[in-house]
Amino acid sequence: MAEILQAVKGMNDLLPPESARWEWFEDQVRALMRRYGYANIRTPIVEPTALFVRGLGEVTDIVEKEMYSFEDSMNGDQLTLRPENTAGVVRAAIEHSMLYDGGKRLYYIGPMFRHERPQRGRYRQFHQVGVEALGLGGPEVDAEVILMARSLWRDLGLKPEDVRLELNSLGVPAERNAHRAALIAHFEAHIDQLDEEARRRLHSNPLRILDTKNPAMQALVEAAPKLADYLGEDSRRHFDAVKAALDAVGQAYTVNPRLVRGMDYYTHTVFEWITPRLGAQGTVCGGGRYDGLMAMMGGKPAPGVGWGLGIERVIELLKECAVEAPSTAPDAYAVIPDAASLQQVVPVIEQLRAAGVAVLMHAGGKDGWGSMKSQFKKADGSGARFALIFGGDELARGEVAVKPLRAAADGQPAAQTLQPLAAVAGWAAMLRDA
């Protein structure tokens, strides 16, 4: 017997009925994007490794530890399974001159890959929704993308207490460089208090030390120089305008001076949506402004802002909050006595489906069609609201018996009716809209 092969650790199958929850979630996302005027973009899963080294930063955790990179055996190219998609969207915008006629509002849905320890809501193949507003530099666009996420929480049925918003401003590179020097001096003066990871990052990426989870370093981090003290007037004005827009619509937030995000390309506003319901994996959406990324990628300088949302984490959050997706049960289940009746039955079922009625047809197979009782049991188990009974007597009269399987609104069982096969359009709406 051949060996049974299994999926790669941390790369999971998504099976019914769970996949229906994902489809519903994606439908909510697409409807949201239409309302905000964001168009779909689809980029390759495999990109040149240099794209992420340049875009994310050589000393980020993603580039140093987490990327699935390999050499193309055909031509020696260095390639990587995308660990995120902002860099890929910016690459596509440059390659196809997408900003020649003004800014673009874009979104994507798809798989990303990071080689890390699998845990709840954090997998080696994971899925993201992302939005990218390219060529649009105003603080009102920062607020817009933040409020898009708020709208999505509402559309999904989450409550304000289920997610909270944290903000910070990283300013511009010159301001960050001055703050960086001050950070290095502060931590060098207390180097005996730094753990191994902080010492490794001290000169390469000291800003990331602020994001440490080590309890022994919290007091030292709290005493570190604050980036807000190094922001110039323009950066302060930009951040104040973002906060004012959020205040205007009553969106609560906390300014977190330690919020830095994990990529080097961020400037000005950064933000995270965090839930208290998922423990250590509490960040369900994060992003910010990246005005220097287009130039870093070799394009004409242009601003950008966006976010990425982890679908697995949001699905886990929906479960924790007992948010149920709408039922995907069929409208009707076709009960069929034998193969001889299929010539009459199949055309009717196809007409119903064309009229928008979801019909699950009983299948006989090698073991036969089974008794009517067993078929009714399957019809009830399918969740369908109606059974369509194509019995021999009914077919002889050119009819089908329509039997409600669920109680009426008053709790009383509805009566079975007979419907003509020759006039499907006349009764299809009854099944579809019940």
Automatic annotation (TrEMBL):
<keyword id="KW-0547">Nucleotide-binding</keyword>
<feature type="domain" description="Aminoacyl-transfer RNA synthetases class-II family profile">
    <location>
        <begin position="29"/>
        <end position="337"/>
    </location>
</feature>
<keyword id="KW-0067">ATP-binding</keyword>
<comment type="similarity">
    <text>Belongs to the class-II aminoacyl-tRNA synthetase family.</text>
</comment>
<dbReference type="GO" id="GO:0004821">
    <property type="term" value="F:histidine-tRNA ligase activity"/>
</dbReference>
<dbReference type="Pfam" id="PF13393">
    <property type="entry name" value="tRNA-synt_His"/>
</dbReference>
<dbReference type="InterPro" id="IPR004516">
    <property type="entry name" value="HisRS/HisZ"/>
</dbReference>
<comment type="subunit">
    <text>Homodimer.</text>
</comment>
<dbReference type="InterPro" id="IPR041715">
    <property type="entry name" value="HisRS-like_core"/>
</dbReference>
<keyword id="KW-0436">Ligase</keyword>
<dbReference type="InterPro" id="IPR004154">
    <property type="entry name" value="Anticodon-bd"/>
</dbReference>
<dbReference type="InterPro" id="IPR015807">
    <property type="entry name" value="His-tRNA-ligase"/>
</dbReference>
<dbReference type="Pfam" id="PF03129">
    <property type="entry name" value="HGTP_anticodon"/>
</dbReference>
<keyword id="KW-0648">Protein biosynthesis</keyword>
<dbReference type="InterPro" id="IPR045864">
    <property type="entry name" value="aa-tRNA-synth_II/BPL/LPL"/>
</dbReference>
<protein>
    <recommendedName>
        <fullName>Histidine--tRNA ligase</fullName>
        <ecNumber>6.1.1.21</ecNumber>
    </recommendedName>
</protein>
<keyword id="KW-0030">Aminoacyl-tRNA synthetase</keyword>
<dbReference type="InterPro" id="IPR036621">
    <property type="entry name" value="Anticodon-bd_dom_sf"/>
</dbReference>
<keyword id="KW-0963">Cytoplasm</keyword>
<dbReference type="InterPro" id="IPR006195">
    <property type="entry name" value="aa-tRNA-synth_II"/>
</dbReference>
